[in-house]
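Homework help board

Subject: predicted structure for assignment chain

Our instructor gave us this sequence and asked us to write out the predicted structure in token form, then describe one feature. I got the tokens but I'm not sure how to describe them. Can anyone check?
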Amino acid sequence: MNNTPSNLAWVTRSENAKHKQIHGTAPDYGTLRWGTRKVFKDDYVAIYVLHKFFKNSRIELAKFYKVSRSSIDKAINTVCRVLAKMNVKILAIN
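My token output:
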């Protein structure tokens, strides 16, 4: 990498993104980032159970499902809200 002053330029974020694509230095977000997918509604209960009863961390679940941690938070919080509306209490089995 050549970081000499003569090789650097002051550009906007948008210009920088275009520059990366032109020179092939832009990351492939489909393979490198694990926060680009959505959690399917069918997986919400599984995520809740894995987190609450099997003690998987939210970060572990995010990596497993290849989504952001905020997507995992949304899934867990949605299940909690639904259970609260239904007045359901879940007890851990030891």
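Reply (TA_rk): Your tokens look well-formed. For the description, you could write something like this. The chain has five helices and no strands. That's the kind of observation they're looking for.
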